[in-house]
Amino acid sequence: MSYFVHESSYIDEDVKIGAGTKVWHFCHIQEGAEIGENCSLGQNVNIGSRVIIGKGVKIQNNVSVYEGVELEDYAFCGPSMVFTNDLTPRSKYPKGPGGFKKTLVRYGASIGANATIVCGNTIGRWAMIASGAVVTKDVNDYALMAGVPAKQIGWVCECGTPLKEGLSCEACGRAYRLLNDQLIEK
Q1: How many Cβ atoms are within 10 Å of 51's Cβ, its own excluded?
Q2: End-to-end CA distance of the chain
Q3: CA distances (Å), 89 to each of 42, 85, 115, 176, in order?
Q4: Are 66 and 48 in contact (CB under 8 A)?
Q5: ∠96-102-108 over CA atoms, to 5°?
Q6: DSSP 3-state assignment of 75?
Q7: What torsion, rounded to 10 degrees, do the Cα atoms 117, 66, 81, 127 define?
Q8: Which residues contact 41 (CB under 8 A, 6 or more apart)?
Q9: Which of 60, 66, 77, 166 is the most buried (most CB within 10 A)?
């Protein structure tokens, strides 16, 4: 086995886990899930059936990644953030997997602690969702989102530093420009 699973965690049948991945205390990975290489799943993480997780993904404590959610490479999920997969849930009228709305977290995006991602939306590449934000619509690449509901309050560099007016990063030196209301690296 080229990955680590803590003895208190449970891995269902037909699960793929990449080399170098670490699954910590009290996790459950459900059947059909695929987890890439070098991921970290903190304490009490639940990965739903048929969920796809790319390489280098970090999922902090107390996060459930429900069926219908996909995390691309290097996505980050902060402690106790929430995904949904059903816009109109009813206990008496379950829809099952056919009724779930897909959520996509693109390459390098970060979601802060206690944020909520309403299903059916895409979080763009390198976007950053502030702690406690509630995302109710698609998020642009590099967008900095905050609030309830979340609104774009700026742009963020690939390294995670919020960008100022000139769109150059003070921390790493990357430079960006706007093209049709989309941020692109120069």
Answers
A1: 24
A2: 42
A3: 27, 9, 20, 41
A4: yes
A5: 140
A6: coil
A7: -50
A8: 21, 22, 23, 24, 27, 29, 35, 47, 59
A9: 77
Identity (one letter) of the amino acid at 163?
L
Record the tokens describing residue 65, joined without a space. Answer: 């990644």
Tokens 């953030």, located at residue: 81
| Nearest partner of 175 among 154, 158, 152, judged by Cα | 158
Tokens of 22: 């670490």
Q: Copy the structure tokens of residue 163.
A: 């960008």
Pairing of strands 4-5, 22-23: parallel
